[in-house]
Write a structure and sequence with these properties.
CATH topology of the largest domain: Rossmann fold
Helix content: 25-40%
CATH architecture of the largest domain: 3-Layer(aba) Sandwich
Number of domains: 2
Number of helices: 16
Structural class: alpha/beta
Radius of gyration: 23 Å
Number of strands: 16
């Protein structure tokens, strides 16, 4: 027998062994067919379930049905990722937020989701609350398959069902092409909605309650959650919403995707009138390479359907009789050191603040600089810049939207995460940086740290789950404007022994500089 034949036999044998035998793992009957996952005895996992399909730059369509039993034992690829040059910044973003990266690589065939359930949960058992996770990444990169978002701990410890999804990002998700109708520009948001619709139609088969679905997300994922709240699908497919470090309705306008599309067309050398067809014809990785090297940004636009310009105004005008938005219970929050990852290496506070703030209100720059210099002196300049970015982009928007929600009678809670641990620091002094709470909430933090880390994780995870189980009663602390502080300011190298995990506080000391930005946020309502 030749070596080639032996190799082929070995490959076929491996493939046969890698596929679960029908009936071996937990099995569910879905609208598209039957799927078999895996179980460790306490948690059942169904990975890589297809919820949609889409050609490049087209709106997603429901995934087709399949024959036989679908193998849901392995993750499927992430959508195409984009990490911006220059090389140093690109490598830094990868090392901080993408190592280890997507376990199955990346592909344009990426509209898959993952379901984690307590073992044995089924349609015939008592239905469980569902937590629907939308990842962050600046609408440039990210995937629901990262180890950081493994839902095993949540499902095992809190008796909830966790769903993590993929959606298209960067040019593949928010192309900005003038040849696409306005309603097909925010493809990433359409992907999220289709995944949510899939959950609403299928989650009962996993033992999940379609009437108790809570959205939660961080950063751009949090923005995606808020967009679903302010531009809700009908009928409403969720009962609560948790927004971690990201508010879309109060954001200052970003760079224009339409301008990036024009630059992309030039860089790709498209000479034809049909530039959309020209870009579609490029190999995926060639398109990705152009977008990265040209440093092009493709972000969500106001389309009047998935993302409304009037989100904040609609919230303020919302009443039970004329809701305008989804009047579901909400939980907002931010971290103590959000800004550090965005200003790494910055040394000129004035130059950075001028770039950060809109040019039409540059007169506020001196007020901002003076106030932070007084409050943070003698903090290093970089720390002052980080604090400005953190409060302007995350902390103050969380405060304002939480309080405005409460003002119109929407049950509203707020948290502030203020803990840092040696085994999760991404650079020296990074503190409670942007996204650092996620591994505690999911229970995916590295083991072997101080006991206080495990205590914080246990409490936060339970409170997130409590919110999902009964959004009207909330996570277990007083509603806004009160704020729950997690972590007691513990920093890397400290044990946290004797420190409380959670304290309640009036937010005055946290929000004392938010008045500086009120004019900017108000202007953003009418941009």
């Amino acid at each position: 027998m030749t070596l080639k034949v032996l190799l082929l036999l070995a490959i076929h044998l491996f493939q046969a062994l890698a596929k679960p035998v029908e009936g071996e793992g937990p099995t569910v009957s879905l609208s598209a067919g039957t799927a078999t996952g895996t179980s460790d005895g306490s948690v059942d996992r169904f990975l890589g379930l297809p919820f949609g399909t889409a050609d490049r730059f087209d709106a997603p369509q429901p995934a087709p049905s399949w024959e036989g039993t679908y193998d849901a034992s392995q993750y499927k690829p992430a959508c195409i990722q984009k990490f911006q040059y220059p090389e140093e910044a690109r490598n830094r973003t990868n090392s901080w937020f993408n190592i280890p990266g997507p376990p199955a690589g990346e592909s344009e065939d990426c509209l898959y989701l993952n379901v984690f359930t307590p073992a044995g949960a089924s349609e015939g058992s008592e239905l469980k609350a569902v937590m629907f996770w939308i990842f962050g990444g600046g609408f440039s990169f990210g995937t629901g398959t990262l180890p950081l978002y493994d839902g095993t701990s949540f499902a095992r410890n809190q008796d909830v069902i966790v769903v993590t999804i993929n959606y298209r990002t960067n040019v593949f998700g928010f192309p900005g092409s003038p040849d696409k109708p306005l309603t097909e520009q925010n493809l990433g948001f359409l992907d999220q909605r289709l995944a949510l619709d899939w959950v609403h139609r299928n989650i009962r088969a996993f033992g999940g309650d379609p009437d108790r679905v809570t959205l939660f997300g961080e950063s751009a994922g949090s923005g995606g959650v808020e967009v679903l709240v302010t531009s809700p699908p009908d009928p409403l497919p969720f009962a609560g919403a948790i927004m971690q470090s990201g508010i879309a309705s109060i954001a200052v306008p970003n760079r224009n995707s339409a301008d990036s599309w024009k630059k992309l067309v030039r860089a790709a050398g498209c000479q034809t009138n049909d530039t959309l067809a020209c870009i579609r014809a490029l190999p995926a990785l060639a398109l990705k390479d152009i977008v990265e090297r040209e440093r092009l940004s493709f972000l969500a636009i106001f389309d009047g359907a998935t993302y409304k310009r009037t989100g904040r105004a609609d919230r303020l005008a919302s009443t039970p009789d004329e809701p305008r938005i989804a009047r579901v219970p909400v939980l907002f929050g931010s971290n103590a050191d959000e800004g550090g990852v965005f200003v790494y290496g910055q040394t000129s506070i004035r130059a950075f603040v001028v770039r950060l703030l809109p040019t039409n209100i540059a007169n506020i720059v001196n007020k901002v600089l003076d106030r932070y210099a007084k409050d943070n002196s003698p903090s290093p300049v970089n720390k002052q810049i980080a604090k400005i970015v953190g409060e302007f982009n995350f902390g103050c928007p969380a405060k304002i939207i939480a309080e405005e929600s409460a003002k119109v009678g929407i049950p509203s809670w707020r948290y502030y995460f203020d803990a840092a641990f040696e085994n999760t620091q991404i650079f020296k002094g990074s503190g409670a940086y942007h996204s650092s709470e996620i591994n505690l909430i999911f229970g995916t933090y590295p083991r072997g740290g101080v006991p206080y880390q495990a205590r914080v994780s246990k409490v936060m995870q339970k409170m997130w789950a409590d919110f999902a189980k009964d959004p009207s009663n909330g996570p277990g602390w007083a509603q806004a404007p009160k704020v729950s502080i997690f972590g007691a300011g513990v920093r890397a190298g400290e044990s946290g022994a004797g420190k409380p995990v959670m304290t309640m506080r009036h937010p005055g000391s946290i929000d004392r500089r938010c008045f500086l930005y009120k004019g900017i946020y108000k202007a953003a309502m009418f941009r």
